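Fig. S4 source data, part A: sequence.
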Amino acid sequence: VYDFKCDANTSNFAFRITLAAEAGARIIIDKGNGESVTVVGTGSNINVDWSYPQPGKYNINLSGETSRITGIVINNRRLIGYLSQSFVDKIPNIQLFNLAGNFISGELPSFASCTALTSFQCNINQFSGELPSFASCTALTQFRCNSNQFSGELPSFASCTALTTFWCFSNQFSGTLPSFASCTSLSIFYC
């Protein structure tokens, strides 16, 4: 079982994971054909940049001191796949999460345990179902879920009082728009 499974339909699959001080997290990338690459964080606030020059199928697994991972950026890579709850559960101290510009589908897992989250971008994908609550992510300043297939009512972001940017357009939300009156710093709003 893998935490994040994707098909990389691009000639140069790359991503960045940021590890906090003295990280011991392991990131395992399995090509699905018996070959894999393991990256182990050993330094202070390091960025693990990994790329593979051939398209193919990749499974990304997180193990070890994953609670020290503070940023994941895998954007605009034309990835096809899904994101599991077990992946998100392993990154409770994530601050920056960006999977924008891919073809990731299925329901978006809950980020309720990620209370340090400041920037969340899953825009321009194929996520569907109801958008989970981000009420516990009170440090959130940037939220983009636009251009997906989310449906149902938009959850409240009233506890995210630091929000400056909110994009949720090009989805299938229904019902009444929740109040953003408590988000006094909100300056960019597209819904």
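Fig. S4 source data, part B ends here. Residues 59 and 89 are 17 Å apart (CA to CA).
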